[in-house]
Specification:
Elements (H helix, E strand, L loop, with lengths): L4 H36 L3 H20 L5 H21 L2
Helix pairs in contact: 1-2, 1-3, 2-3
Length: about 90
Amino acid sequence: MANHKSALKRAKQDELKRIRNKSYKTKVKKAIKEVRTAVASNSAEQSRQNLVKAVSIIQKTGSKRIIHKKQASRKISRLTHLVNKLETQSP
């Protein structure tokens, strides 16, 4: 454990950031899961709505540097590709 006053403060700050980042990462995972379940149920309308929400959450997480910006871009790209593929298959 830290001995200096500044190191103790930094440890407290890091713990708070870890908890905050964990909640954002959980939101991202949940949003992605909602899109994937909508795609699995062949619901084009629902998957498009969930995609819009997921993109917002992922971009916000990437802009706050909780996840890397390229990782955020990759997640968005893959989800968008999945939803577009579903919409082209639907009659």
